[in-house]
Specification:
The structure is a homodimer.
Chain A (H helix, E strand, L loop, with lengths): L5 H8 L2 H10 L5 E2 H8 L3 H13 L3 E6 L2 E6 L2 H13 L8 H12 L1 E3 L2 E3 H13 L3 E4 L4 E4 L1 H10 L13 E5 L4 E5 H13 L3 E3 L6 E3 L1 H11 L22
The structure holds a DNA duplex.
Chain lengths: ~240, ~240
DNA sequence: TTGGCATTTCGGTGGGCGCCGAATCGTTCG
DNA sequence: CGAACGATTCGGCGCCCACCGAAATGCCAA
């Protein structure tokens, strides 16, 4: 009756196959239909139908490149909403050894649209706070870039534009850590920088990220961050944690 | 395979009946099952099943009061996520005269969980900015309370506690205005204050809010805000508007 | 032009689930 | 206690839609 189409958008994400595709696209990359069909474990025909619905619903966009069609999330807003729902979802029970390792890899380091998330993402954010480049205001739950942070960003050649529509820094709730990590321009530039330096690379086509040996050195040198983190298997309980029934 | 249950939560919101209930509960109130059944236009038996699923999924909570059971959103996080999805949804075409007036009422003034939204919500937020009580930073997309705002809040008897877990002020994207309005403690206290003063009242059991005559005076006196807004039928195009295909 | 590859369209099938009526449970009245 | 009422459970019906195979389309390379 007075429903402003909430169920239409939600239903698009409410199918297991489409959800798997969306979660996979949260890596922020452009992927062909065949790859997404493989991820969702459905026939190409089925995947095509799903992708058409997602495009129709405005959740993803498509680019033609020759005989390939590459699909990606339609906007950062979509990524933000998906992350929000993910943060509501209960932590899933592990179903297999394979799933468990993939789980652990995701928790450790992944891309969230165009920035870094997981233990690596929150660790980098914490390090930038420790170094005085970022300030976190727990009262407003905001992240801001300091002058020192701005000049440091210039040293690294990050492109930061205050006049742009997206904020310079923005806290993004990490669904695995239940804490905030840096998104916005800083998050995006930091991720891009680390990828171009070869310090982190994508593992496969999804969101999982791997830190290279040079990356390990760079993390220690620039951020004073030990990687892999101590007690990697154990989840460090941190402040700002939120409990769910 | 690697789906962290996105589709489970999304599917809960992906049914038209459940979505209608959730949207109705966005008013922030506790409602009995029968009321929600009426809203969703389904039999009590069906509504009961839906509500059980929503509780099971952690989206709503239930309180027993005698032979009644009152349902409400489980947390502000849920409300935030629902608003997020709503902001992705295309503006729905009007289906009937009744729906059209309800639409217009929703756009004009409604509650978003525990704070005010719609033209009234953004108008109040703008007024607080004009009066120097709030500052909006478009670079970070943040709202902050000024010293003048803090003392003004004290004048009105608002309970603001910086040590609380929820931020003092927080920008919340308004799906009908496509702009930000004030949420957080300030938003909640302002709404509670205006309700107890009798300046705004709920119209029916839903989210629609009506401004009383005293409310109209108070809005002019305290905020310099004309109500109803000029050209109420026409939607004023505002900055920050986002186009959708 | 032809062949190959990625993707889409179409028809048909099956399962899941939203829906209701009837019966049941629990609470609060008279 | 019994009647009334709100809410839930159960059984069964029906529809929607995810799914696939087969065929068609579009694009590129020889």
């Amino acid at each position: 009756m007075s429903d402003p189409q909430l169920h239409r958008v939600a239903a698009l994400m409410g199918d297991a196959s489409r959800a798997a595709m969306l979660v996979h696209l949260m890596g922020g990359r452009h992927l062909p239909a065949s790859e997404l069909a493989r991820i969702a474990r459905v026939a190409p025909a089925t995947a095509s139908e799903h992708l058409a619905k997602l495009v129709e619903g405005g959740l993803i966009q498509v680019q033609r490149h020759g005989r390939h069609r590459y699909f990606a999330l339609a906007s950062p807003e979509v990524a933000h909403v998906v992350e929000g729902i993910l943060s509501l979802a209960p932590v899933e029970p592990v179903r297999s050894l394979n799933a468990a390792t993939h789980q652990a890899q995701l928790r450790a380091a992944r891309t969230c649209y165009h920035h870094l998330a997981g233990t690596l993402g929150t660790g980098l954010t914490d390090a930038m706070i420790r170094n005085g480049w970022l300030v976190f205001d727990p009262i407003y739950e905001t992240l801001t870039l300091t002058e020192a942070g701005t000049s440091q960003a210039a040293v690294w050649g990050w492109h930061l534009d205050p006049t742009q529509r997206t904020p310079l820094v923005k806290p993004c709730l990490d669904w695995s850590e239940r804490r905030f990590h840096a998104a916005g321009q800083v998050g995006r530039e930091m991720a891009a920088w680390m990828f171009t330096q070869g310090w982190v690379t994508h593992l496969g086509s999804g969101r999982v990220v791997r830190v290279s040996d040079q990356g390990r050195q760079a993390l220690a040198e620039w951020f004073g961050l030990a990687w892999p983190p101590a007690h990697a298997g154990r989840k460090a309980t941190a402040s700002g944690e939120r409990s769910r029934s």
